[in-house]
Each structure stands twice: as C-alpha cells, then as structure tokens.
Automatic annotation (TrEMBL):
One of its GO terms (molecular function) is uracil phosphoribosyltransferase activity. This is Uracil phosphoribosyltransferase. It comes from Nocardia aurantia. Pfam families: UPRTase. Keywords: Allosteric enzyme, Glycosyltransferase, GTP-binding, Nucleotide-binding, Transferase. Its cofactor is Mg(2+). Pathway: Pyrimidine metabolism; UMP biosynthesis via salvage pathway; UMP from uracil: step 1/1. Its EC number is 2.4.2.9. Residues 6-205 form the Phosphoribosyltransferase domain. GO terms for biological process: UMP salvage; uracil salvage. SUPFAM superfamilies: PRTase-like. Belongs to the UPRTase family.
C-alpha cells in the first residue's frame, strides 16, 4: 500500500493544536479544517488535469481543471469536520456518506448509514476519517466502495496507528493512505496513543 506522510511545519503546528487537551471545540474544528486542506493538497499533487482556454481581462490564458474530481466520503461522525475544507478546494466533487459507530466493548465498527452513488467505476474516491486506529471502520468503508465498483481509493486520515496501517496493507483493497503522522500504537480501549482523544467529541462535544 502506498503511504504518504505529509510532514511539514504547518501540519506539525496544526497537529499540536489538535492534540492539546486544552483546545476548545471550535478551535479544534478550525485546526482540523486547515489540516485537511493541506492533506487534500498533497493527495491531489499528481491528479490528472485537463486544460482549456480562459480569458483574462488582458488576454487568453491556459486554464486547468481536475480531469476526475474525487468523490468525497466522510465517515460520520468525525469525518464531517473534514468535508468543508475538502469540498472548498475541490468544489466539483460529489459527496457521499458512510455512518459507522463503534462498539465501546468490542471496538468493532457498527455501520448505521450509507449514502453513496450507485456506480463508482472509474471514479476516484477520497475517504475522510481523521483517525485510522484499528482500521475496522476504514475496511468496512472500503468494502462498501468496492461493492460499487471503486478501484482508486485514497484514505485521508490525520492520525494513523501502525495497527490500522497494517490492516489496510493486509487487505486486498486498492487503497492509498495520506496522513499527517503515524503515532505509536493503540491503548487497551483502541484509542491512538498519544493521539488526540475522541475526534468526534473533540469537534462536537461529548455524547
Ligand atoms: N477514534 C478516535 O476518535 N480516536 C482514537 O484515538 C481512535 C479512534
């Protein structure tokens, strides 16, 4: 599996804000939005483009657009905080949704919602989930996307655990990972260490 770690002074400072337990919910959402923009920027670095003429107030110049804007798929709830930044940078993108809760005892994913285009053959897909922990939610999402024909999938995750990376690598899914950092591992509750806590609670408050 191809893995791109976006290591940059700006991603590092935004990560610091996300990690800090004193960061308020609004400040956390703002940092997640900004960091998502940087990850999307890098994820699209080699995206194919088409050119077309664009008329400036002075002359005709060469315009550029993405040939295949990715479908954006936030994994609810935590991935919601990544959609605004991603769709601001790629406004042509469609957005699909997958809802997955987590069983706090077994740590297994509990899917509760799916709203995706019927046919994803030939469509690049960006899955937005801030935390790649055990990989269970991501693998479920990849299964659902593959069932609809997706064959070009990028997981955009702010923090990743080695366990989640291994789970993706050991699957047969055609997935690439773009992440800001790989942390040490998981604790007994399947939280990423040192991590940032519960990414949904940090954005929206505790349930
Ligand atoms: N989900 C979270 O929100 N945080 C973790 O550390 C792991 C999974």
């Amino acid at each position: 599996m191809r893995t791109l770690i976006v290591d940059h002074p700006l991603t590092a400072t935004l990560l610091t804000t996300l990690r800090d337990e004193r960061t308020t919910n609004p400040a956390f959402r703002a940092a997640l939005r900004d960091l998502t923009g940087l990850l999307i920027y890098e994820a699209l670095r080699d995206a194919p483009v088409a050119t077309f003429p664009v008329t400036t107030p002075v002359a005709v110049a060469q315009g550029t657009r993405l040939s295949h804007p990715p479908l954006l798929v936030p994994v609810l709830r935590a991935g919601l905080g990544m959609v605004e930044a991603a769709s601001a940078l790629v406004p042509q993108s469609r957005v699909g949704f997958v809802g997955i809760a987590r069983d706090e005892d077994s740590h297994q994913p509990v899917p509760y919602m799916e709203s995706l285009p019927r046919d994803l053959s030939g469509v690049p897909v960006f899955v937005l989930d801030p935390m790649l922990a055990t990989g269970g939610s991501m693998l479920h999402t990849l299964d659902r996307l593959r069932a609809r024909g997706a064959a070009d999938i990028t997981a955009i995750c702010v923090l990743s655990a080695p366990e989640g990376i291994a789970a993706l690598r050991d699957s047969d899914h055609p997935v690439r990972l773009v992440t800001a950092v790989v942390d040490s591992g998981l604790n007994a509750d399947a939280y990423i260490v040192p991590g940032l806590g519960d990414a949904g609670d940090r954005q929206f408050g505790p349930r």
